[in-house]
Design brief:
Helix 1 links the parallel strand 1 and strand 2. By secondary structure, this protein is an alpha/beta fold. Strands 1, 2, 3, 4, 5, 6 and 16 form a seven-stranded mixed beta sheet that branches. Strands 17-18-21-20-19 form a five-stranded antiparallel beta sheet, with helices on both faces. The chain is built from 15 helices and 21 strands. The chain folds into three domains: 140 residues, FAD/NAD(P)-binding domain; 107 residues, FAD/NAD(P)-binding domain (3-Layer(bba) Sandwich), CATH 3.50.50; 123 residues, Enolase-like, domain 1.
Length: 466
């Protein structure tokens, strides 16, 4: 019998959480293995998520501006998507990112096993290649997969996933999109801007339901103005394949509506990819939704087994997965003075146009917790730089505690929201007040200076109370 190889640390899954956990463990001088059975190394973000989607979205942002050149006094006779060139550019860029990650993984610092794994016991995994590995410590970081909810007809009807949309090399004539989350919204706008007829069907009263209704409504109006056939607060009753494509019947209020299109795009979310791991053999506990339960150090119910990334949540965000992986490895090997992840600093960005971003604690959360707060906002349609950019949708909002004006959170929907929100990242981490931020210079005319208006409003309120 071949000898079972022993490792100090094994990452089951080589995406953002797994790779960064492995890298951190290797930096600590440990013997590390990465087990990843995907066709390509790199993880969801690089290969089929953040980077390909944002590459395509930026191209269509440029396209949209070109098509509206008249607003800026420009004559641009014709602007259209060249899908083959768009596809080629995306593959080139993503290929460079993937090559860099693969080289890092194959640098010799880690033993790489291109196979799927399942637990035999708390310290041993069986690989699909036939090998067995034993580890003193593990991280489960197998990511997520597309969810197929029990909607009548969905499982029996051919549908696209985000992988298919991101790999398009032609302009589809029409697409029905199911879902109203980040992936659904970003890619619906992409499809509309390249020239597809798009129907977007969302169950909740608003798209992007994890954000405030006010912010969601700004994006909803932008979608409708661009020609997306958007339906919210719906219940899908039947999906079926037709001779020309697909049809979806759904309820909206007291009406029954049917929409047809050439293609169906299932963007109803993702679920943890744990089915083949046999976590029960290791004694690892999961939630009813399949996520791996973890404590503040990313430990599972089995103390030497950690989990991070989409498989653990609570949010499927890359920078959070990276932080979870690094924290897990440091805790696993007893590094002193480490701190758990502070979820009060949660940062979210949605790359629609206008984009939407938030950081820290939001009004709804504070209201549920019974916490007092001050809030002020200011619209982009009354701000010099956004007016000259013809980017007048949305607002900036700041949330602060009422006694000293310490910043608790912020929300931005409008031009460059994903960049502007980072004006609050450092201050929130440093527990800064609105007065601290107002000491800083804010250049005119910039988008960033709009943040001073809600900061000043809150500062005045705090001063008046004191």
């Amino acid at each position: 019998m071949p000898k079972i190889k022993q490792f100090d640390f094994i990452a089951v899954g080589g995406g953002s959480a797994g790779f960064n956990a492995a890298r951190t463990a290797a930096d600590l001088g440990k013997k590390v293995a990465i087990v990843d059975g995907a066709k390509e190394l790199g993880g969801l973000c690089i290969l089929r998520g953040c980077m390909p989607s944002k590459t395509l979205l930026y191209s269509t942002d440029v396209l949209h501006l070109a098509q509206h050149g008249k607003l800026f006094g420009l004559k641009i006779p014709h602007a259209a998507a060249d899908m083959r060139e768009l596809h080629r550019r995306k593959k080139t860029i993503i290929g460079e990112f993937a090559d860099y990650r693969r080289q890092a993984m194959e640098s010799g610092r880690y033993a790489i096993y291109r196979a799927h794994a399942k637990f035999i016991d708390p310290h041993t995994i069986q690989l699909s290649s036939g090998e067995k590995l034993q580890g003193k410590r593990f991280i489960i970081s197998t990511g997520s997969q597309v969810s197929v909810p029990p909607i009548p007809g969905l499982a029996e009807t051919p549908f696209w996933t985000s992988d298919d949309v991101l790999d398009l090399d032609h302009i589809p004539s029409s697409v029905i999109v199911l879902g109203g989350g980040i992936v659904a919204c970003e890619l619906s706008q992409f499809l509309r801007r390249i020239g597809s007829r798009v129907v977007l069907i969302q169950r909740s009263p608003n798209i992007l339901k994890d954000h405030s209704p006010a912010a969601s409504e700004v994006v909803q109006q932008a979608f409708r103005d661009e020609g997306i056939d958007l339906h919210t607060d719906t219940k899908v009753e039947q999906i079926k394949k037709t001779k020309s494509g697909v049809s979806v019947r759904f309820r909206s209020g007291d009406r029954t509506i049917t929409r047809s299109a050439k293609h169906l795009f299932n963007a109803l979310g993702r679920e943890p990819n744990t089915a083949g791991l046999d976590l029960a053999a290791a004694g690892v506990t999961t939630t009813a939704g399949g996520r791996v339960k973890t404590n503040r150090w990313q430990q599972t119910s089995v103390s030497h087994i950690y989990a991070g990334g989409d498989v653990a949540g609570p949010h499927d965000i890359v920078h959070l997965a990276v932080a979870q992986g690094e924290l897990a490895a440091r805790h696993a090997f007893g590094i002193k003075r480490i701190k758990p992840i502070n979820h009060d600093l949660l940062l979210n960005v949605v790359f629609t146009d206008p984009p939407l971003a938030s950081i820290g604690r939001q009004e709804a959360e504070l209201g549920v917790a019974g916490k007092d707060y001050l809030v002020a906002d200011y619209p982009f349609d009354d701000h010099g730089k956004s007016i000259l950019m013809e980017a007048k949708r949305g607002y900036v909002k700041v949330i602060a505690e009422p006694k000293k004006g310490r910043i608790l959170g912020a929300e931005i929907v409008g031009p460059q929201a994903g960049e502007l929100i980072h004006c609050f990242s450092g201050p929130l981490a440093m527990r800064a007040t609105v007065f601290d931020l107002l000491k800083a210079p804010w250049y005119h005319p910039t988008l960033a200076e709009i943040l001073t208006y809600p900061l000043e409003t809150i500062a005045d309120e705090v001063t008046q109370k004191s």
